[in-house]
Amino acid sequence: MRLLIVEDEKRLALSLAKGLTAEGYAVDVVHDGIDGLHRASEGTYDLVVLDIMLPGMNGYRICSTLRAAGHDVPILMLTAKDGEYDEAEGLDTGADDYLTKPFSYVVLVARVKALLRRRGGGGPSPVHTLGELKVDTAARRVFRGEDEITLTTKEFAVLEQLVLRAGEVVSKGDILEHVWDFAYEGDPNIVEVYISTLRRKLGATLIKTVRGAGYRLEAPR
Hints:
alpha/beta; five-stranded parallel sheet
C-alpha cells in the first residue's frame, strides 16, 4: 500500500512517515498544499493523510478539488482545530475521516487501516492463488501448499506487487516506487536481492526474469 502525507509540520510529517513505513507501507511526504494536490492527482496512492492548514492551498480545497476531478482515494484529514463545524466542513468537502491534533499515533494507524479495509470492501478477494502458492494480502500471509512461508515486511511487499499483477511484467522501477518511496537513493539493485530471496523461499521457477523489462510471476504448469 502506498500512502501520501501532506503536512507542513516537518517533524510531525517525518515522524508519521517513519512509523507508517515500519507498518509496511510505502510513504511519500510533501509539505505544501499545491505539491500535495499534484501528487494526490497522480492517482498512485491508496490513501492520503491531509493536513488542513497548509501553505499554498489548504486541505479543504485540496480535498474538494480531488473529489471534483473524480478521485476517490481515501482521505484522512488532520487539523489543529476542533469543533463540530470544522469536522463537518472537512467531511462535506469529501474527506473520509477526521483526526484532531494532538492525536495518538496508535489511533491514526487504526484509522488508516480501517479506511484501507473499507476501500477494499466489495472489491476483489485479497487471497490470490497461483498453483500451490496462496497469498493473502489482507492478512499478509503466504502459503505453499499446507506450509506457511515466513516473509519479512519488505519481502512480502515485493511479492505483493508481483501477485497483484500476476502474469504481467513488473519493472524494477515499479517495485522500487511502490515498495520503497520516491526519496529512495540507494542501489536500485536491492530489488534483485529481494527477488533472489523470494525465489529461495517460494521456489526458483515462480518468478521469471524478463531481460531488460522486469519480473513476471507465473503459476507453475
